[in-house]
Amino acid sequence: MRKLILAIILLQFSTQLAAENENTAQLEEKAQNLAAQLAMQLKARLQNAMEAGGPAHAITACNVSAPQIAEELSTGGWQVGRTSLKLRNPTNNPDEWERLTLLEFEQQLASGTPAASLHASTVETDEEGTRYRYMKAIPIGGVCMACHGEAISEDVQSALAEKYPQDAAIDYKPGDLRGAFTMTKILSEDRPD
Ligand code: HEC
Questions:
Q1: Which of 22, 38, 136, 192 has a CA 20 to 30 Å removed from the CA of 116?
Q2: Which residues contact 42 (CB under 8 A, 6 or more apart)?
Q3: Domain boundaries, the chain
Q4: Tell me: the pLDDT tens digits for 108-162?
Q5: Is 109's C-beta closer than 6 angstroms to any atom of ligand 1?
């Protein structure tokens, strides 16, 4: 009898674990999907603005569009954004988990891991509740150089200085880690009564 009870308890426990794993897999899939959508929409908006008026004009477009696109994708308990160790927009500043993850991505990249496969996830619980979190690395490419590279034209420099007086997001080389997409899903909230 005791063995039977134990078997039932173990079975329940493993079913529960399997459900949690499945849940995490679904969350990861959704987070990856959101990162891909954010990347695609930002790229399209950037491309249009660059074609319409060059990089200095595109800065204004980025300034308005980037936070707007991120907000539009932040539905159903998800929060979507970008972060970096060298910031242009100070509101994108990383929290502790994001900062440590970005440092880890830097190390992994330096030891040969391809940037495209750099991602991390965790489940966090504190007094505010429980959250699932996911980050995906953003490497820098040729098209990014006009606004994040080492030789930035004067009109771009002055457009940047006007909007981002504390800009630190320059001097990158192609292949560097620019930052990461960062997604959070609130799983449960502890609301104060
Ligand atoms: C036309 C200029 C321009 C180009 C080209 C450009 N960016 Fe940016 N980037 C900006 C601006 C402006 C912001 C600040 C947006 C905001 O206010 O949220 C920014 C912000 C970012 C951020 C958010 C972190 C932060 O520092 O605030 C990341 C990540 C980023 N860019 C990556 C890239 C990548 C990768 C490319 C190339 C695919 C790229 N950018 C090309 C202008 C540009």
A1: 22
A2: 65, 66, 69
A3: 2-39+74-189
A4: 999 999 999 999 999 999 998 999 999 999 999 999 999 999 999 999 999 999 9
A5: no
